[in-house]
Design a protein that fits this description.
By secondary structure, this protein is α/β, with parallel strands linked by helices. It has helices at 3-10, 14-27, 32-42, 52-62, 70-81, 84-88, 103-106, 113-117, 120-128, 134-153, 165-177, 186-205, 211-218, 241-260, 273-284, 301-308, 334-342, 355-367, 405-414, 433-445, 451-462, 482-489, 499-509, 521-530, 540-549, and strands at 90-91, 98-99, 265-266, 324-328, 347-352, 373-377, 390-396, 416-426, 511-516, 558-564. Helix 4 packs across helix 5, helix 4 runs parallel beside helix 9 and helix 9 runs parallel beside helix 11.
């Protein structure tokens, strides 16, 4: 162990420990282990000073997926909100207008505000992942609106626009990642239409649209929908990496997904009425648009199952070394891709109703060079007719969106080999009471179930008074993109359960409950103290009684294992 490591380990005060880690990083700035240690120390400091050094360190972490952890993103958001430019542009009480916005253009001194907004911390924060924060969303939505209004009104000098290009590209990337979830006023829509028309005209005349105006338009609608899309080139903005990244994200990747649609096999028809409605929802809003997966080391299938389950390991059916796995309702592919990385010897069939979601999944798998997943379009209700059986079936957050979950589960059970296992996930009725409260607010507004209706509903929820039960939903990650918000609050079909309800469901489908997965250690310990005769929480009636007193226990869904009887 190096002297620097010993200093880090021996430091009693986390602030002293942070200073020691920073000295180590100065000596070896590329040392990933030291950066991980830096993050662990950072999480133990209750209040850390926002300094240029911290901003630079967070920017470095945001640029590397393994270091861009949720705590890093949270602290980066807090740092962003304390930038002098952000503090200068105060939101009005209605959350729609920015006060002092004109000053950023009118005074030479404050023109450097865009230089501050082009800090690597800001650019990477906007471009690495969707931002999950109420205040940041309201600020960015208002800033976007003012930039658009300034362009239309001609209030911005031509020489100032190029200074905004870095920030505008990163903002457009953020808006694409959140699927244009920010509220758009009728005036904004009209202005965007005028802006797009100007861009199209420039492309047609051969003069070439200005990159900063293209980026501004891309903050409102994806570039691949523009006729001028193919005329936009990375070399139009040399030395601006976020410009090239914007074009890749909003043009190249969507067009690649469009080409992949024709290569996806159709395993079954989709005849059920609700299945057709659900498919339509996810064709319009592929769910979810994820950016990256955490690096995973290969594992033995049985060790993987045992490690992921809070169950009696001696009661788990064994898996073969090269299991055949079906992911039923794979969405945009993150779950089967994570399984493929963890179990590289497995053979995975991943099915979904939505070709848009499957195309996204197939593109992501190709980018990661994963070749042991077969993506196909199918309806769970029709799978039993395929005549195939699997060692494991994974079906997370899908059955509760079917008209008849029992029929869906029976179909999956028929595809499970004798002695095979199923990983299932369902919504908890008690844990989702805040969702019901938010839906009540939405119902009062009588808003249409379309993109504009969802945007307005979100804005109304964001501006609920503190303490309102419906406002809790704004603290959820799923609230911050259009597809996940639609899934959370506007789904066409949804059932919720209790542990007793799960017992009935499994019995009707001919399945045996093996235990819950991923239960927090302190929750399991509390359960054992109350029910010592059921140490692995397999008695669903007792689990129901526990949930009555602890209704947030399964707020992230019931994740559990089952096997055919």
């Amino acid at each position: 162990m190096s002297l620097q490591d010993k200093l880090v380990q021996s430091a009693a005060d986390p602030r002293e420990e942070l200073a020691a880690v920073r000295r180590a990083l100065k000596a070896g700035p590329g040392n990933e282990q030291q950066w991980k240690r830096y993050l662990s120390v950072l999480e133990r400091i209750p209040r850390i000073d926002i300094t240029p050094q911290l901003a630079a360190e967070l920017a470095f972490c945001l640029g590397r997926p393994v270091l861009a952890t949720p705590p890093v993103k949270y602290l980066a958001i807090r740092t962003f909100l304390r930038l002098s430019t952000v503090r200068t542009l105060k939101l009005s009480q209605d959350g729609e207008r920015l006060q002092g916005f004109e000053d950023i253009f009118a005074e030479e001194a404050t023109r450097d505000g865009f230089a501050e907004l082009s800090h690597p911390l800001v650019l990477r924060l906007l471009a690495v992942d969707r931002i999950v924060d109420r205040d940041t969303e309201l600020f960015l939505a208002a800033l976007r609106r003012h930039l658009l209004e300034s362009f239309v009104a001609g209030d911005v000098e031509d020489k100032l626009w190029p200074r905004t290009l870095d920030f505008l590209c990163a903002l457009a990337i953020q808006c694409f990642l959140n699927e244009y979830v920010y509220l758009q006023t009728p005036a904004e829509k009209a202005s965007v239409a005028a802006l797009v028309q100007a861009i199209e005209l420039s492309a047609e005349t051969g003069s070439g649209p200005r990159p900063e105006l293209v980026a501004l338009a891309a903050a409102y609608r994806p570039l691949h929908t523009l006729r001028a899309a193919r005329s936009l080139k990375p070399e139009a903005a040399p030395g601006v990496p976020f410009w090239a990244r914007l074009l890749t994200l909003q043009i190249d990747q969507p067009l690649a997904e469009r080409r992949l649609r024709a290569s996806i096999r159709k395993l079954t028809p989709i005849r059920d009425r609700v299945s057709q409605q659900v498919r339509r929802q996810y064709e319009e809003n592929p769910y979810p648009r994820w950016t990256h997966v955490t690096a995973r080391r290969p594992r033995d299938p049985n060790a993987w199952i045992a490690g992921a389950a809070s169950v009696d390991k001696s009661n788990m059916p064994p898996l073969p070394n090269m299991p055949e796995i079906m992911v039923a309702g794979c969405g945009t592919g993150r779950e089967p891709i994570e399984i493929a990385l963890t179990l590289p010897g497995s053979r995975i069939t991943a099915v979904d109703l939505s070709l848009a979601s499957l195309s996204y999944a197939k593109r992501k798998a190709g980018a990661l060079k994963i070749d042991n997943i077969d993506f196909a379009q199918a309806d769970i209700l029709e799978l039993a007719g395929l005549g195939r059986r699997f060692d494991m079936i994974v079906c997370s957050g899908v059955l509760h969106h079917m008209d008849d979950p029992v029929s869906g589960l029976k179909s999956l059970a028929a595809c499970t080999k004798p002695g095979g296992v199923m990983q299932l996930a369902l919504y908890s009725r008690r844990a989702r009471d805040f969702v019901a409260a938010a839906r009540a607010v939405i119902a009062e507004g009588e808003l249409p179930n379309d993109a504009d209706g969802m945007r307005q509903a979100r804005f109304d929820l964001l501006n609920l008074p503190r303490g309102h039960p419906g406002r809790v939903v704004t603290e959820w990650r799923d609230f911050y993109t259009l597809s996940t918000c639609r899934d959370l609050l506007f789904h066409v079909q949804e059932h919720c359960y209790t542990p007793k309800g799960i017992a009935v469901l499994l019995k009707e489908a001919g399945l045996e409950f093996l235990g819950f997965r991923n239960v927090e250690a302190d929750v399991l310990e509390a359960y054992r103290r109350r029910f010592p005769d059921d140490p692995f929480a397999r008695d669903l009636a007792l689990c129901d009684a526990f949930e009555v007193d602890h209704p947030r226990t399964f707020v992230g869904m019931y994740h559990f294992m089952a096997t055919p009887r």
